[in-house]
Write a structure and sequence with these properties.
Elements lengths: L1 H20 L5 E8 L2 E8 L7 E3 L3 H9 L3 E3 L17 E9 L2 E10 L7 H17 L1
Antiparallel strand pairs: 1-2, 1-6, 2-3, 4-5, 5-6
The structure holds methionine sulfoxide (SME).
Length: 135
């Protein structure tokens, strides 16, 4: 139980670190697969009503179903989208794999338009690889 609590704290710290160091990362959080759904884990930013997301639904659910990073540079053009804040302009969702299976994802919302580069993708995929080793 204590180890779980510390793990959650560490992931929350990681969210804070990412948000504090990258100006265009405005909401940073983890979702974990539980009972075949995505459930909200540690996050920083505005509270969201999307605490449970089925596979296939929204940008998070689509990334989970496809098992690949999903970058949306303009959320107003995405029809399968769950809005967390009207300020959000773009979103990147990176899956976390363990033993070849998706166990969760890192979700980042940006209030800036078209903010994500190939460097963001590569960096965040690396972060998720590291996270998968400690969860
Ligand atoms: N926008 C996401 C939902 C999660 S909130 O952004 C935190 C989606 O479309 O799946």
């Amino acid at each position: 139980e204590k180890i779980l609590e510390r793990g959650k704290e560490a992931l929350g710290d990681l969210c804070k670190f990412l948000r504090n160091h990258v100006s265009y990362y405005d909401w940073v959080g983890f979702y974990f697969v539980e009972d075949g759904k995505l459930k909200l884990g540690p996050f920083v930013g505005e509270p969201t009503e999307h605490v449970e997301i089925p596979f296939g639904v929204g940008i998070c659910g689509q990334a989970a179903e496809r098992e690949e990073t999903f970058v949306v540079q303009d959320v107003s053009k995405e029809t399968n989208y769950l809005s967390c804040s009207p300020k959000t302009k773009a979103e990147i969702v990176v899956p976390i794999f363990k033993d070849g299976k998706i166990i969760g994802e890192l979700d980042i919302d940006s209030y800036s338009p078209s903010p994500f580069s190939e460097e963001d993708r590569a960096f965040l995929e690396k972060v998720c690889e590291l996270v998968s080793k400690v969860v």
